[in-house]
Every structure is written in structure tokens, then in C-alpha cells.
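Q: what does this look like with adenosine-5'-triphosphate bound?
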Amino acid sequence: MSNDKKNTAPAAPALPSNFLRAIIESDLASGAHAREGMPSVITRFPPEPNGYLHVGHAKSICLNFGLARDYNGRCHLRFDDTNPEKEEQEYVDTIKDSVQWLGFSWDWQGPSGVEHHLHHASDYFDQLYIMAEYLIEQGYAYVDSQSADDMAANRGNFSTPGKNSPFRDRPRAESLQMFRDMKAGKYANGEHILRAKISEDAMSSPNMNMRDPAIYRIRHEHHVRTGDAWCIYPMYDYTHPISDALENITHSVCTLEFQDHRPFYDWLLETLSAGGFFKMPVPKQYEFSRLNLTYVITSKRKLRQLVDEKVVTGWDDPRMPTIVGLRRRGYTPEAIQLFCERIGVTKSDGWIDMSTLEGCLREDLDPKAPRATAVLRPLKLIVENYPEGQSEECTSPVHPHHPEMGLRTFPFTRELWIEEEDFMEAPSKGYFRYYPPVGDQPGSRVRLRHGFVTECTGYDKDENGKVTAVRVKYFEDSKSGTPGSDTYKVKGNIHWVSAATALEAEVRLYDRLFTDPQPDAGGKDFLAALNPNALETVTAYLEPGMRGTAADQRFQFERHGYFVADRVDSQPGKPVFNRIVTLKDSWSAK
Ligand code: ATP
Ligand code: MG
């Protein structure tokens, strides 16, 4: 950095910096990954198709696809499909859909046309196999025939070095023949396994992942894509570096728990490069800290438990932190991208507060969500001096700061719906909404927003003492926007809808699924921390214009928060609304 500030050029609008961008920028400057016909930055997102993606995966997607976008590179979507027993087409489909919904594409405009970078580890089964034979021939791998128990016992632990397998010095030719027999289906699951031999003393390596890691195992299992062609399947630690290298990945970004796997990653690619399988430079692995979000669990296994035990209605339940759940809840891709930018990437583990994600959503929706009126807990209001059968239009901007979004209209009639909480029989101090006259004290004066000023004249009760209607009189010359209407000074201003034309709709008031900020930390029983109020369903009355709402349309219901028409249960003319988030954070004080 120059000390002479005067000579410093004005900074370009900088991308938020982080250690990965710094590495990439230094690699771009040195030409570390410059290759003919290929971008200098190629990343990948490598999910295993064994479940639905969640908000943690969104961080990895935004990071990998975002780096590729920002440095004119490309990002591959690669299914890490080497565990045939757990993987299904349903998961492949939803993962593709989620990545696209988040706003990313694996297509890349290459020198000779668009390339589709949707890959599968299973595309490389033949090559992976050939490389394994090469490792055996070179003395870098052997077939181990120990029982699973012996193998585990001989692996040692962090404080005890492992013991060599009695099969470790099996002649290469014998290992090769046995490996071919494994492939030919001559053995049962678990009878033998292929292990790497990184060095003579690898079993005493302080890094457990270097202690003769398994690279192939026998699994007589049908695979979604390769069918019954294989009964041996490569292990993740073996498949991953090779897939990266075959796809010319430059920066292989993963979460911190893979740090201890990096020495094997590097060893494998160097060893195979020496054998002529890859050209240098080979990909490099970099680790970042995973997303931990308060009030949320991101373990696939535990999310599956919520679905299986019917705690939620499915993977796309709007309370789920899955991408399909967030989408159905009403989250926008832009809000999730903004969130991922804002939390950044670091190498230190920590917790991000749920309010950060919700804040990004409000920030995204506030300028673009049309406003609408919804009465969620209805109480009848009767305007006693307004003639029955009469009706007049009131208007209001669709968005207070965007006149170009136009006006909306709704009728004023004798009977209206207001919120239950907008009337108090005996008002508390500072309460400016409706309360009745007492003695010679008149009832309160309240403006019905975008309509008239009214004065409370009384109320009705049923035999249980429940208030069933509020009675008011209106002032004819007080209509909002008409000359002189502002001579009425009132402190209360409330929303309402006409009972004659209101749309009755189911509204689902969602809240956080757990009451504990770290529901599963330290092995806690997360089911004990379920929020009993995570869903409340109400029958609400909405302004009549809401009848035409299409699924996925989002609104701000004034005073209540942001809502979306549910994409699954809404029907033409009969939308069902989900509360995405309230207007203000009500959790921070708890
Ligand atoms: P599994 O236990 O099934 O392996 P996983 O969450 O690691 O679960 P993958 O399909 O392997 O699932 O994940 C794909 C990618 O998403 C990986 O590169 C992984 O590091 C990343 N990822 C997963 N969870 C998070 C998280 N909470 N924050 C950031 N990245 C994550
Ligand atoms: Mg994983």
C-alpha cells in the first residue's frame, strides 16, 4: 500500500473481500490456473443426492457460484453419487431446482458454445477404477481382508498410533487380482476393501485420515445412474479430488471439517499426476466455516426426523430451513443471496443470528412488496350513521414510496372489519384506538385509514361477555384526501376492510420452529425445544382486490408483516397466505 494518499486512484466499487477472494485474486495475478480455452476460476458445488438442501447449503452455493460469477469463471453442479443405498432421483431433481431458484446456472458460455456443467461422480466410475488399479500397481494401494472390527481397532486413535494390517504387504499382483475379483462380484459386502498406502509408516500418522484410508468398498447395490454395472463403489475421499481434477476445478471450496482430509487430497492428485493422469496445476482445496444459524437445525438426519415423525408437514413445510421450505415460506432468492454476502466467509466457527436472515428479507421486500390490508383477528365495526346498502371507493397507494406502482381501491360500507385489539372497553393509558363513551366523556375518535374519521358510540356483547361489535358514527366531511379532512386531529389511525366485500382467507402465522437458539447443540434433544406457537392458523378478512392473488405473490400486510400466497395450497380466487416474517423482530428481547 502506498502511503501517498494523493496518488491513490479512487477505489473501484470493491466486492466485499474475504480470504477466498484474496487467494483467487493472487492466483489470477500470477496466472496460477491459466489454461487454454478455460476460465481461470472454476469452482463446484458437490452435494450428495441423499436429502433436501438447506440454508447451510445455500451459503456454499452462493459462495461457489458467486465466486465463479464475480471472476468470470464457471461453477459446476456435481452430484457426489457414490453411496447408492441412500441416493434417489427425487433428491437430484430438488437439488437442481433449488440451485436454479437461488439464481444460479451451471451453463457456461465457452469459446465454442454453451457448455452444461452438470456432472455426476458416477460419470467417472471407469476412470476412478483405472486409477485405483494404477495405485495398486505402484504399491500405493492394497486389498485389505481384515474384519471391520479389526480394521477399526487397528486404526488407533488420536493418542495411539495405528497398527499395520496383516494384509498390508500383500503382493501387488495378488491385490490387483483380488480387486478385479471384487469388481467381478466374487465377494460379499465387507469381505475385502481397497486401502491406500501413502507411506511405509502411514499407520502412525498423527492425521487419522492418512492411516491407509479406504478407497473402494464392496456394495452389491443398484445405482440410480449406473444400474447394476458396479458392485464396488469408490469412497468420498478418493472420488472427490479425482472428480475435481477431471473437471479442471481450480479452487475446491469446502467446509472446515475437511481440513484434515486435505493432505490426502494433495497426495492423491500429486501421485496420479506423476502417473500422467493429470496435468499440473491440479485443483487446490480451501476450507471455510459452515453456517450455524440460531433457532435452526441443519443436520440432514435431524431434518429427516422432523419429516418422518410428522413434526412438520414435509420437506417443504414453511417452518423448515430447507430451500424448498424457505421458498414456500416466502423467502426470495435475493434475500438469501444478500444474507450470504452479508455473513461473508471466514475460517472461524460461530453462530449467525436468525434475525440477520430475517433482516435481509425485510430489506429485500420493503421496497418491492405491494401493500395490502388484512384483518387477522376480526371484530365487526358498525358505522351507525352510514346508510345501509351504500358504498364508496377509498384509495391508497400500492406502495408509499413508489407512486409508479399505482393506487388500489376498496369500498367503505356501513359494516367493516377491524382488529380485535383495536378496541378496549376500559382503555389503558396511552391507548388511542377505539374505546366507548363513559358518562359525559365521549368515545374515542379514530381515523379509519384512507377512509373517514369516526367516533365510538358504544359496543355490543354476547351472553359470555365477549365484545361482538363496536359502534361508531362517521364524519361525512373527513374523508382522507378531501379538502378540510385534516382539520380532524386524531391520535388513532387503524386499518379496516369492508365486511360486504372482504375476501375471507386462511392465513398461516408462522414463527420460528424452535424456542432454543441452539436447539441441538451439545447433543440436546431438539424435539424438546419445539416452539408450540410456530404455526397459528386464522381466518382473516382481506381487501377485495386480493381475490386475484397468484401463488408466490408477496405483500406487506400493513401493521402485520410480509406474507406470500402459499404455492401449494392456494387456488384460483382462493389464496392461502403464509406469514413470511413480522415487520419487526420480536425475538431479540426474549
Ligand atoms: P451429509 O452429512 O449428508 O454429508 P452435508 O450437509 O455435508 O451432509 P452434502 O450434500 O455433502 O451434505 O453438502 C454439499 C456441500 O454443502 C458440501 O460441500 C458441504 O460442505 C456444504 N455444506 C453443508 N452444510 C453446510 C453448512 N451448514 N454451511 C456451509 N456449507 C455447508
Ligand atoms: Mg457431506
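The chain is about 25% helix and 20% strand. Residues 1-13 have pLDDT under 50 and may be disordered.
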